[in-house]
Amino acid sequence: MPEGHKIHRQAQYLAAAFAGKALAVSSPQGRFAKEAATLDGTVLKEVFAWGKHLFLDFSGTYVHVHLGLYGDWRAKSGPNARLGLSDGSRSIYLSGPTTCELLDEGGVRAVLSRLGPDPLRNGSGDKERFVGAVRAKAVPVGKLVMNQAIVAGPGNIYRAECLFRTAINPYRKGKNIAASRLASLWEDLVEAMGEGLRTGVIDTLQTCYKREGASETDRRFAVYHRAGKPCPRCGRVVKEALLEGRRLFWCPNCQK
User: How far apart (Å, rounded) are the C-alpha atoms in residues 84 and 222?
Assistant: First the structure.
C-alpha cells in the first residue's frame, strides 16, 4: 500500500494538471458511471491529501479515493479504470482503488474526523495531539504508528525507519514512552516523509551511515528489509517479526 508521501505527490500532480478546469469525467469500467455523469463538465476546484486519503473537490462535491493495496493512477485507460479525468489534452485514469466514492462536505469531515494528524500537513497542535494519543495507549508503539487514527500517512517503511532513527523499541508501550521521545518521533516523521514528498523516493538512511558499494536496500534503509544484517548504528543483528500481521524490522540492541 502506498505511504502518505505518494498520495500527497499525486494530489500535487492532479492539482497542477487539472485544478481550475472543467473536466470530462468518465468511468470506463462502469462501476462509477452514475457518479461520473454528475461531475462531467464541472470544474475541479482543488485536490488535497490527508494521510492515505485523496480528495478531489468539484465545488463542494468531492471524489474520495483510497488506493488500498492495488489502486493507482495511470496515463492510459484500461478495463479496470474506475475513474477517468480529461481536460481535452491530458487524461488520467484511476484503477483498482479500495475506495472511490462521492461525498459532500459533511462526508469529508466525517472521514477526516476518523484520521489522526498528518505529518505532511503538520498543523498547529498536531505534534501534541500525536504525543497525547500515543501516551494514552497501553499498546506497542510499533502498532500505534500504523494506526491511521493515531497518525495519518506512515506505512511499514516509515514505521521501521523512524522508530530506528529515534531509537525507540517498537514493542515499547505508548504509555511508557516519554513525551519528549514521542515529540522527537513526530518531528522525524515530518522530516523523513517530507523528504519522500520532495524526491518521490523513500530514502531514510541517515548520511552518516551510508556506505559506498552497498545494495539498494542497504543504501536507503537502516532496518527495513535488512533482517539478519548488521545494524548501521551498533553492528548487532537487525531482527524481523510479525506485529499485527505486518513485517516489523528493528535493532533490539539500540532501540530501547
Answer: 39
**CB-based contact 64:87 (threshold 8 Å):** no
Percent of the chain with pLDDT over 70: 100
The yes or no reply on domain 126-250 and CATH 3.30.40.10 is no
Q: In which band, very low, low, confident or very high, does the pLDDT at 204 lie, cut at 50, 70 and 90?
A: very high
Any idea where the domains of the chain sit in the sequence? 4-114, 126-250
- Are the beta carbons of 251 and 236 closer than 8 angstroms? yes
Residues involved in catalysis:
2-3, 52, 246
* C-alpha radius of gyration, the chain, whole number: 20
Residues 6+ apart with CB under 8 A from 15: 46, 47, 48
How far apart are the C-alpha atoms of 212 and 192, rounded to whole Å?
Answer: 22
Domain 4-114 has CATH 3.20.190.10: yes
Mean pLDDT confidence for 98-107: 98
- Cα 26 from Cα 37, distance rounded (Å): 7
Is residue 250 classed as helix, strand or coil in its secondary structure? Answer: strand
